[in-house]
Amino acid sequence: NAGVTQTPKFRILKIGQSMTLQCAQDMNHNYMYWYRQDPGMGLKLIYYSVGAGITDKGEVPNGYNVSRSTTEDFPLRLELAAPSQTSVYFCASRQAGTGGEQYFGPGTRLTVT
Amino acid sequence: AQRVTQPEKLLSVFKGAPVELKCNYSYSGSPELFWYVQYSRQRLQLLLRHISRESIKGFTADLNKGETSFHLKKPFAQEEDSAMYYCAPRIYIFGTGTRLKVLA
Question: What is the average pLDDT score of chain A?
Answer without folding.
Answer: 95
